[in-house]
Amino acid sequence: MALSNWTTYLGRTTKLLRDSSVKILRMEGADAPSRAPLTLFRLNTQRDIEQFALGCDADIGGTSTAHLELDESPERNKGSGSPATGRFWGEMRLEVRPELQGRIRGGYAGFRSKPRPTLFGEMVDDVSNHQFLALRLRLGGDPRLRNSYFVNLQTDGPITTDLWQHRLYFQRNDGGWEDVFIPFDSFILTNTGELVQHQIEMMRERIRTVGISLLGGNSGVSGSYDLGIDSIRAVNEEDVTRPPGKWFLLGLVH
Q1: Which H/E stretch holds residue 121?
Q2: Cα(227)–Cα(235) distance, rounded to whole angstroms?
Q3: Which residues in the chain show pLDDT less than 70?
Q4: What is the value of pTM for the model shown?
Q5: What is the pLDDT of residue 69?
Q6: Do residues 54 and 86 touch, judged by C-beta distance below 8 A?
Q7: Using CA atoms, how far apart are residues 138 and 177, in angstroms rounded to an integer?
């Protein structure tokens, strides 16, 4: 194991021990659950970016491209509240290599947080005391792709191919930053890209990974894409900055 990876591994273990000790010392089980916003991930440094894995259809014979980089452009980061943010960009293409036509489908790209192993098992996030997933995002690229983005949550459940999914609905069309709020209760359970017939309740106390995917193949849309990501948090109603009517309606429609 490389030194930097070992340092990160030990850091996660130390954090897990510290958080567990604090809960015991504070006797949190006897107190009211905290409603304070919980930051799951930030994408403001190179180390933050390295917490994520990237992929696209080119991995199996498609022709799309995908990049996840630290973006320090003052112009693109204006209004984000951060000097640097994550930038997910590339070309969404529906074509596949000639020898694979009819055998695979192109038109997807995405990234997700990497598993976080520690000496005491894998680190997970508990969002059971929060109502909404909050993402600070900047939408750029071809406007035809704006309705093809999805956010994906993986829980520490027995079926590793299960994903909780919700479409990302953007309000702005000027390339500016905005906060997108999604009720956790509005995520739907999928498996290998298909809707699971018997929906169950999300195990919100054991969130394993968080990711964003672009599914141009589902809507038959190709083009350049460009998505800025500043932070991913869990919040409650009092922290929602979008007018109540809008975020409530977004939670009802997938």
Answers
A1: strand 121-122
A2: 22
A3: 1-32, 242-254
A4: 0.84
A5: 98
A6: no
A7: 4
pLDDT of residue 120: 82
Please choose, from the candidates 9, 229, 224, 252, the residue with its C-alpha nearest in 3D space to the C-alpha of residue 115.
9
In this structure, are residues 136 and 179 in contact, taking their beta carbons and an 8 Å threshold? yes
The three-state secondary structure class of 252 is helix
Tell me which DSSP letter residue 100 carries: G
Give the helix/strand (H/E) hosting 208.
Answer: strand 207-214
The whole-number pLDDT of residue 77 equals 98
Joined together, the tokens standing for residue 130 give: 């929060």
Per-residue confidence (pLDDT) for residue 121, from 0 to 100: 86
- Give the contacts of 175 (CB within 8 A, at least 6 positions apart): 76, 138, 139, 140
pLDDT given for residue 24 in this prediction = 44
Contact between 137 and 177 (Cβ < 8 Å): yes
Q: What is the largest CA-CA distance in the chain?
A: 62
Instruction: Convert the pLDDT of each residue in 38-62 to its tens digit.
Output: 999 999 999 999 999 999 999 999 9
- Cβ atoms of 167 and 150 within 8 Å: the answer is yes
CA distances (Å), 186 to each of 49, 91, 113, 245, in order? 27, 29, 21, 15
**Residue type at 150?**
F
Report DSSP letters for 183-245, one per residue: EGGG-EEEETTEE-SS-----TT-EEEEEEEE-HHHHT--EEEEEEEEEEEEE-GGG--S-HH
**128 neighbors 144 (Cβ within 8 angstroms):** no
